[in-house]
Amino acid sequence: TSHRVADLEAYQAGAEHGPCVESMREKRAVSVATADEANARWPGFGDRMRVAGYERVYAVPMVWQGVGVGGLNLFWTDPGTGSVDGVLLQTYADILTLAAVYVRPLSADDAAQHLQEALEERGGIEQAKGVLAWQYDVDMSEAYFALLQIAEERSLTLGEAADAVVESAVRGETG
Q1: Theoretical Cys-Cys bridge with 54: which of 9, 68, 75, 100, CB 3.0 to 4.6 Å?
Q2: pLDDT of residue 112
Q3: Between 3-15 and 45-52, two packed helices, what is the crossing angle to 10 degrees?
Q4: Residue 64 to residue 93: CA distance in whole angstroms
Q5: How far apart are the first and last CA of the chain?
Q6: Closest to 122 (Cα-Cα) out of 96, 157, 172
Q7: HEC secondary structure over 67-118
């Protein structure tokens, strides 16, 4: 739930590799005990994990009608192979999947399309965070909260606020 985790998840989506992506594609749990092991499997990901303050990750797939539609990542700050209740985590991911798709019944294709749209919107949000971080000389976490504030003040969705920030930057304006 932290901003650091959101950045790692966005990186995985953009790079199309990492524990969550592999878990979703292969529809099975994926685990690595160290950031070095993560780098060996997904070049660059372990370095990003370590910079974010994490050493270990466990990912479980979110599957709808036989199609991997997402994944749930859990990160630890310490390396190792500590006890993980994989059955419990998979059950939790299954419940999250149902909650995500049961708002209205979705086919696997619709769920995949919604996921793709969310990933595309995430790219714009990350770009806007970068713009705000540079403009205001703040870290990415503070930039995210600034973007949330812009969205709230202007009654926009987060994606719309991100688009507005980027468009303003293109015009040479701040915020």
Answers
A1: 75
A2: 76
A3: 170
A4: 11
A5: 25
A6: 157
A7: EEEEEEEEEECCCCCCCCCHHHHHHHHHHHHHHHHCCCCCCHHHHHHHHHHH
CA angle 4, 30, 85 (to 5 degrees): 90
C-alpha 65/C-alpha 12 separation (Å) is 23
Beta-carbon-side half-sphere exposure of residue 105 (alpha carbons within 13 Å)? 1
Helix, strand, coil percent values for the chain (each to nearest 5): 60, 15, 25
The amino acid occupying position 119 is L
Nearest to 63 by CA among 100, 113, 105, 9: 100
Q: Which residues pair with 30 in a beta bridge?
A: 59
pLDDT string in tens for the chain (175-residue length) = 567 787 888 888 888 889 989 998 999 999 999 999 999 999 999 999 999 999 999 999 998 888 888 888 888 888 876 677 788 888 888 888 888 777 666 677 877 777 777 767 777 888 898 999 999 999 888 888 888 889 888 988 888 899 999 999 888 887 6
